[in-house]
Amino acid sequence: MTSRPLALLAVVATALALVACAPASAPPAADEPSAGQQDLDAQLRDAAWADDVDGAAELIARGADVNAKDDTQQSAYLIATSEGHLELLRLTLAHGARVDDKDSWNGTGLIRAAERGHGHVVGELLRAGIDRDHVNRIGYQAIHEAVIFGEDTPEYATTVRALIAGGVELDRPSGNEGRTPLQMAEDRGLDGLRTILAFARDAEVPADPDAALRAAARAGDADASAVALRAGAAIDVPDPESGRTPLQDAVSGGHDAVADLLVAMGADRG
Description:
Blueprint: H1 4-21, H2 35-49, H3 53-61, H4 76-83, H5 86-94, H6 109-116, H7 119-127, H8 142-148, H9 154-165, H10 181-188, H11 191-202, H12 209-219, H13 222-230, H14 246-252, H15 256-264
Helix pairs in contact: 2-3, 2-4, 4-5, 4-6, 6-7, 6-8, 7-9, 7-15, 8-9, 8-10, 9-11, 9-13, 9-15, 10-11, 12-13, 12-14, 13-15, 14-15
């Protein structure tokens, strides 16, 4: 007959064995932001929707987080990209916006801006180093979105040219339809965007991108300007003879499409 001490030892041993075999408990969840922080962040998102730059700056100074998202995965930064709020975007980038952050469609701010035809936001994001060729949940890159949701308007023309100038891929088929951006433009009957994309596809890389950009700006050729920038042209290098920059040539010649592209891509307007 087992003695009481031996029986007790057996129970303890069994308990220890069960503990050893039990799965490790999950680590404690990360601390949720305080109610005060959540309120600040919500106010910042409201300011972003309203394009209230001064109000947003005040909220950020009080500690609001430009990356804090609501239940729909919207942050002040992502709102600025989709709504075309350029100064607000610059404010969020200056205060730690995660430039490659994603929305509920696994889309970047570049994809959101391209969909809406916000060419100047596209240029700002490209210069900030955003992932140019990220593919979202439905298989689109920014250049696909600019075409499939775009129209033959000056705004979408600048958007597509800015993407070309920024070096995005132009020939990857979309995930759903298996269509390149050029094929999408053809399918939709968007002759303006089709012409821009076909020019970029067929153009030779200029041997002297700076000279090519100056010539395109003087001639008012926005498509050639985009190709020159894609090839690495310096956007503000003045002409050795006239001393004028490409933007100054475009403005003096009344070439609005070239000027709009150059400003979108960061040309000095001073």
